[in-house]
Amino acid sequence: MADAAEVLADDKRKRMRSPAYPFINLETAIRRAKEFYDMEGRNSAHLKVAVKHWDYEERSSGGLQTAAALMSFGLMRDEGTGDKRKLQLTPNALRILLDDMPDSVKRAEAIKQAALAPKIHQELWTRFAGNPPSDAALKHTLIFDWIPPFNENTVESFIKEFRDTIAFAKLTPSDRVSAEAEDKGGSGKGRENPVSPVGVEFTFASPSLKTRMQEDVFSLTEGKVTFQWPTPLSADSVQDLKDWLKILERKIARAATPPAGKPTTEIVARDESKN
């Protein structure tokens, strides 16, 4: 028979909360934003009114989670607290809902920005350089390597939401979270204070350019080295890449270990004027 400590430990494991992630995927969130727009337009509305537009009761968890998801995607913003809390669609949401130009580049970029607005999406996209692994490998990472770790009972629902959102936004490996956004929230290790999705900037491949990713693999005794780059590249980008490779070369040299049994060479500066 399990003792009290074991029972409490088991209960704690069951109640372990996963890192925050959207309750719904981006495609559904945009539909919810449209339902709000059809009733309120560009105006703000009290939270208890907004959830009714989504067919939820005033204090239902589904309604509150839907509102939180739309804010996470940067489609809504809120102001006030308690009974005075109001919701309003963001400019990014209005771009997605109202830009009806055929093949609109701005709308496509707005959808991609929304897809990578949630902090957990930013972190995963950055960690895997736009190439998330298989569901099984991703699940293992989120349960065992993520800080804080995901609850094994909810991790699969998050993975589905993440995959659906990335597919809907048509993100490609060349779409990148900007360095500034990574510094604010994309650590890959989890943070206590989530970055606000509103105003976060991303670097996306322009749909007007038919870019594709090229890859080169070099085999070493210790393993394989893989290098990926988008093509075509501008002259400025080529120069930037050359400068970065020089920095990378120095970092690799510092990380190199001397052969076994051979001490590291010590360089001693001498003042020849004293000889």
Query: Major beta sheet, specifics?
Result: 3 strands, antiparallel
Quickly count the helices: 11
Task: Give unreliable regions as ranges.
Answer: 183-200, 206-210, 264-275
SSE-based structural type:
mainly alpha
Rounded Rg: 24 Å
Please tell me the total number of domains: 2
Strand order of the largest sheet: 1-3-2
Report the order of strands and helices.
HHEHHEEHHHHHEHEEEH
**Overall 3D geometry?**
globular
Terminus-to-terminus distance: 83 Å
Number of strands: 7
Q: What's the pLDDT, averaged over the residues?
A: 79
- Report strand %: 5-15%
Tell me roughly what share of residues is in helical segments.
40-55%
Could you characterize the architecture of this molecule?
It is a single chain. This protein has 11 helices and 7 strands. The protein is mostly helical and 275 residues long. It has 2 domains: 26-203; 212-249, no CATH class. The strands form 3 sheets. It has a 3-stranded antiparallel beta sheet. The longest helix is centred in the C-terminal third of the chain and has 21 residues, at 235-255.
Chain-wise SSE layout:
Elements: H1 4-15, H2 26-40, E1 45-46, H3 47-53, H4 61-72, E2 76-79, E3 86-89, H5 91-98, H6 105-115, H7 119-127, H8 135-145, H9 155-169, E4 176-177, H10 179-185, E5 202-203, E6 212-219, E7 224-231, H11 235-255
Antiparallel strand pairs: 1-3, 2-3, 4-5, 6-7
Helix pairs in contact: 3-4, 5-6
Which characteristics define this entry?
two-stranded antiparallel sheet; mainly alpha; 2 domains; single chain
Short description:
The chain contains 11 helices and 7 strands. It has 275 residues and is mainly alpha-helical. A 3-stranded antiparallel sheet has the order 1-3-2. A two-stranded antiparallel sheet has the order 4-5.
